[in-house]
Amino acid sequence: MTKEESNQKNIDSEIHNSASESKQNNSTKKSHGEILKEQICEGQETYNKKPSSIILSSVTAGLEIGFSYLLICNLFYFLSDKFSETTIFKAIALVYPIGFILVILGQSILFTEQTSLLTLPVLNRKRSLNSLFKIWSLVIFGNLIGGFLIALTLIWIGPNLKLFDIKTIETIALHVIKPDSFTILISAILAGWLMGLLSWLLSSATETISRIFIIFLITGTMSFTGLHHSIIGNVEVFSGMISSENIEFLDYIRFQSLALFGNAIGGAFFVALLKYRAFIYNVDIN
């Protein structure tokens, strides 16, 4: 057995032992190793799914996240003549998490939530880097397609039900793409970091109410601070692009590429340097 194989065996054994000890203690607080093992297993489950299943689940997530957009537009339109735009964009944090709650508790596959989960099996040498990029591509494709479909639906039904108007769609989209490219990239990295943290925290929680609170806390923070999320941002900017002459295709491509890249970096960075590496540094691999 090579030194590299021996090191990996020690890491796997330590993760397993840490998880087993936590269960034997019947503690309500899960150990680092137990959470890490659950995250790796959950990531592996996604890898084991058929591509058609992954795409369908990802499309579903893209559709479901649209309910956040529906509420965002409706709230903005409702408050537009009562408060300033700055105040309204802060208040949006109250409804922004709804779509994420539907997606995550419904176990649909959302790219930003899965970024860290899918990275862990690669870090633990259970999957290859090529397989990671392949599955990321499938999930992103499904999420974007679902976003396109719900955007087309909402920009039609919203004005017809007088929930919001085209001006609202344009204002929200312009607000999302307003920062310069570097700002959007860093903002997306921070959002990806938070989503990686969300996945980790959800493994620590067992009760549904606790999970809902955690999702609300993390995604509400993203909304309140204006951090860029590639999947709900896809719905926001795509809707604006097809509804307004002030938002061009290049604006959409600029935002979407930066947001996806930033979210991916944030999620992978969070897992690689602050959770997985922190754990294995405590493993004796000499």
TrEMBL record:
<feature type="transmembrane region" description="Helical">
    <location>
        <begin position="132"/>
        <end position="157"/>
    </location>
</feature>
<dbReference type="InterPro" id="IPR023271">
    <property type="entry name" value="Aquaporin-like"/>
</dbReference>
<protein>
    <submittedName>
        <fullName>Formate/nitrite transporter FocA, FNT family</fullName>
    </submittedName>
</protein>
<dbReference type="GO" id="GO:0005886">
    <property type="term" value="C:plasma membrane"/>
</dbReference>
<feature type="region of interest" description="Disordered">
    <location>
        <begin position="1"/>
        <end position="32"/>
    </location>
</feature>
<feature type="transmembrane region" description="Helical">
    <location>
        <begin position="54"/>
        <end position="79"/>
    </location>
</feature>
<keyword id="KW-1133">Transmembrane helix</keyword>
<dbReference type="GO" id="GO:0015499">
    <property type="term" value="F:formate transmembrane transporter activity"/>
</dbReference>
<feature type="transmembrane region" description="Helical">
    <location>
        <begin position="252"/>
        <end position="274"/>
    </location>
</feature>
<feature type="compositionally biased region" description="Basic and acidic residues">
    <location>
        <begin position="1"/>
        <end position="15"/>
    </location>
</feature>
<dbReference type="Pfam" id="PF01226">
    <property type="entry name" value="Form_Nir_trans"/>
</dbReference>
<feature type="compositionally biased region" description="Polar residues">
    <location>
        <begin position="16"/>
        <end position="28"/>
    </location>
</feature>
<feature type="transmembrane region" description="Helical">
    <location>
        <begin position="182"/>
        <end position="201"/>
    </location>
</feature>
<keyword id="KW-0812">Transmembrane</keyword>
<feature type="transmembrane region" description="Helical">
    <location>
        <begin position="213"/>
        <end position="232"/>
    </location>
</feature>
<keyword id="KW-0472">Membrane</keyword>
<feature type="transmembrane region" description="Helical">
    <location>
        <begin position="91"/>
        <end position="111"/>
    </location>
</feature>
<dbReference type="InterPro" id="IPR000292">
    <property type="entry name" value="For/NO2_transpt"/>
</dbReference>
